[in-house]
Amino acid sequence: MRDWQDTRTRGTKTYFETNRWGMYWGGFGEPKPYVESYRRPLGDILNGLADTGWTLDRFVEPVPAPEMEMVDSRHFAELSLAPAFICVRAHK
Asked: Strands 34-39 and 55-60, how do they pair?
C-alpha cells in the first residue's frame, strides 16, 4: 500500500495507475527473494470484488505487533504511522 509513495519503487507512476513491479525482499536471509506484484488503486481492488459478486466482510489495515519493536524498531516505527499492505476478507 505505501510503496507508491516511494519514488524509488513508484518511478513516474501515480497512485491511480495499475502497474507491475517487483523488488528483493530483505529480512529472510540469503538469497533474498524477488517478489513481483501489481500495484493498483484501492477502489479498483474493492470494486473488482464487488463487480464479480463478492461481499466484503471486513477491511483491515494492520498495525505491527508490539513484539516487532524489539526485533526491527525502524520498520515498527514506519508501520505504526501508515500500513504497508491490506487484508481483505470477502466471500461469495
From this structure: unpaired
Dihedrals φ, ψ of 26, to 5°? -95, 175
Q: pLDDT tens-digit profile of 7-52?
A: 777 778 888 888 888 888 887 789 999 988 888 888 898 899 899 9
Contact call for residues 25 and 33 (beta carbons, < 8 A):
yes
CA distance 64 to 86: 12
Q: How confident is the model at residue 4 (pLDDT cuts 50, 70, 90)?
A: low
Report the C-alpha gap between 90 and 15 in whole angstroms.
Answer: 24
Any residues with CB less than 8 A from the CB of 61 and at least 6 apart, and which? 1, 83, 86
Q: Which three cell numbers stand for residue 6?
A: 516511494
